[in-house]
Amino acid sequence: MAWPGMEKYQNERIIIHLDYDCFYASVVENERPGLRSLPLGIQQKNILATCNYVARAQGVKKLQLVSEAKKTCPNLVIVNGEDLSRFRDASKKLWLYVREFIWEYKVERLGFDEVFLDVTQMIDFNIANLNLADFPASVLPTCTLASNLACTNADDDKLVEEAADQGIGFFRLSLTDPKRGFSFSWGKLPGHTYPLNDALDLRVLPESDHSSQSLEDDGLDCKVHNDFHQTKHTKHRLHRRLFLAAHFADFLRNSVKETYNYTVSAGISTTKLTAKLAGSVNKPDKQTLLIPAATQSFLDGHEIGKIPGVGFKTAQVLREELLGVVQGGAPEGSSVAEVAFYDKLTHPVTIHDIRRKLTLDRLSQVLDSKEQARKLYGWLHGVDTTPVAQTSLIPTQISIEDTFRSLKGTKQAEQVLIQLVTKLITRMHIDLLSPLPTPTTSTPTPTTSLQRWLACPRTFRLSLRPRDMTGPYSARISKSAPLPRYVFARDSCAEALAGRLVRDVGLPLLRKMGKVGEGELQLVNVAVVNMEESKAGEAVMAGVDIEKVFAGKKVTAEGSRNKNDEDMDWEKEVREIERVYKMLGEKGVEGDHKLAEEIDGISNEEDTIVDGQNLGIVGVMKPIDNQIEPGIGEDLWVKADDNGELSDMDGNGTDIVPAEAPTLRPIAHLRTKSRLDFSELEMEDEVGSPSARGVVCPKCGMGVLLFALEAHARFHEMERREQEK
DNA sequence: TGGGGTCCT
DNA sequence: AGGACCC
Question: Signal peptide span per the entry (predicted)?
Fold first, then answer.
């Protein structure tokens, strides 16, 4: 993106950092507005992930134990936030919204609730625009936010002139459409500044010591009457650019609030580091512009660990370097976790301290790489060249995890794995499948109703945290294996695929972990990684209509023929898998082994892990009429032997219970409540046996794995409807 | 202390 | 495969 004379404006970057206020709590408040006025905490296991500001006013803290929070605030409303789906969805929605405003999509996501924006080009274009003769034409009267995006008053010369006289500016959001943008008042700087606006006498501020090259007055005299802006510093280019950015940040915050009802805090500066730190100065629903000349003193006051990039370990090393090795050390024979360390509260070390006492050479010796030292040295002085990365629409990894007080043995682990992998596959569908074709009347019906995979993960990873490993923290163990292709069958239900995946890859990996896999587990995590982007993915990234890319090969004129062909093969392969699945579904759950083998033949060609017997697959989902309610209230029985245990009949941990086995008796009653929501599958465990994993269908006597229950019930419903015809 | 993520080695 | 960092 360029315009005449752009280069001479391109020196220092302008970065905005946005931070959605107590994000999880805000998501819940938007779902249930009644909670807005109440103290609200979001619970994950034993702690509050976050809480709203009403709760904070009553003494509740982030990351506090739920038990403690309840003491300090007995009327605290607590909502469980262990399932992140809604937060992830809201985060993505906000990100996509903000993204559309920023040229070249220079928008980087950090976690679910933060974004960095590099608005340098937008700011410089608008500055340049003002300097060109069209300053009056780029000025519009104030209009409401709603009409800002398509303001039609531009032609009204009188209003325009009046506006200019009143110091009203117009910020253009589009290079090509001069009407797209918002108006703002040059006379008023939105939000806060650091140092404080009142304390800030711009007239006596020294020329900025670390960006003096950009403070050259370019001669533009803004048509404003406000004293503040008639100081000499207003004439400094960097200041003017930052003021403009403050207005843009204000616009973005207001837009997000009006459109989606989320309050946002923002920091405006020239680097990611300083923008982020500046944003945390004034917090809920406020923004802060860091005045460049104050950068060093601003940074100096921060504790060393506050620098994003300086984590627990690095901060520890730096504190020890300054204060000396911790006295006493670890008692003889104590575990690593008991080693004493300098705490940031008891032994705060500031950026100032480090900057004054540790040279670059010293830092190089203390840190593990010269690069790290150079980066840190820069940060200490407000230098941070890290670019704002365009966050891809496609994640590099998708993972699901759960923690437990105690989880023992392969049997329970399998249950957990099926649950987690089912969620994982559902998430793959949400995050990796192309958006559904928009149902507009103008677009011709697409050749296929199937969504496309934007990317395909090549690897499945299982991670565990053993109950009490001797580690100061985290300590996970992980193993990976190739992800079988059949998980990409788009019309199969997540349960069925999960069952197969756990059987073929999950359990083998678990066994590969040896003793750890059978011992007590505190955490289980499943993930798909190694994303390979497809042509469809690239097209979506570029904002191109996917259907066009695939409809005519001619559209992809670029020399990427190979990649495209590979993608077509990939599509064909997945379709073939889906065809076989469909046939299997039509043949019924009796599970024609030949077909099942066919699936394995197709899908496991390249898989290194093919484990256990082929049991036939039952969980095939077929498209069915939305009107009907199959399987609701249908009774199914879990059976067990006289000891109350499901025997591992085939010795492979698969536990499909034959209906004919005379010694079996029911131990649990299952009833499908809803056909759409798998999570609502109701299970009344009558014996308390956690090992019940197979059920016998009362209709056909077929053994059905729990994960496939829903699909199985649906099969019977389809059968019934066929007979009614 | 949660349930996610990123990149580097 | 693990470690450091981020939220």
Answer: none
